[in-house]
Amino acid sequence: DADVTQTPRNRITKTGKRIMLECSQTKGHDRMYWYRQDPGLGLRLIYYSFDVKDINKGEISDGYSVSRQAQAKFSLSLESAIPNQTALYFCATSDLGSGGSTDTQYFGPGTRLTVL
Amino acid sequence: GESVGLHLPTLSVQEGDNSIINCAYSNSASDYFIWYKQESGKGPQFIIDIRSNMDKRQGQRVTVLLNKTVKHLSLQIAATQPGDSAVYFCAENGDSSYKLIFGSGTRLLVRP
After folding, report:
1. Which residues contact A14 (CB under 8 A, 6 or more apart)?
2. How many inter-chain contacts (A to B, CB under 8 Å) are there?
3. Distance from CA of B16 to the nearest CA of A (A)
4. Checking phi first, is residue B94 left (phi over 0); if not, alpha (psi -120 to 50) or beta?
5. Would you call B46 and A42 a contact, using CB atoms and an 8 Å cutoff?
6. pLDDT tens column, B94-107
7. Contacts of A105 in chain B (CB under 8 A)
């Protein structure tokens, strides 16, 4: 979805390096999410944010941190990358549904991260 | 990307036939379900959703069926085309109003 962009699209790094993945959206959505995808495991939630001052841990937050710099920007950091963090990383956005119900999430194109 | 779905269940269909992709969801509290399509090198793309107050919902060439009794969700694609080849994920909201729980996916291959 061109409304959600991620940079870089591909990154190869070494163990111990600090890595930042960035996500920007033009949908005007309040909610943003970071997922990782591994073969056979679907998508797992790392962190999510409902607005600029709100950050929440997801299912697998250990080893990751995030920053919500603005409504449109949500970055994911690996402070000291390790090989088992090699995966596809996706950013997603959503807006609060009517009546506070669950809302559809729209995904960016993904970042392929390889940690050697 | 090509690393997604190395060990996924695969459905192979002839072009023009109908496809049915199944999903068993886990949480009886789920009241919102989504199907996503993921093509190689791309992020998941929204296809269709359904809420628990419905049993069936139709879109363009796609239909989602929900059976809450057995916690089963299916995606039907009519007149399957080569462009439908992708990995398909179902997702449920569990007991949350804002988080989604994703299944591991099914690869659909369309034979010409």
Report:
1. A81, A115, A116
2. 71
3. 27
4. left
5. no
6. 877 678 888 889 99
7. 34, 46, 100
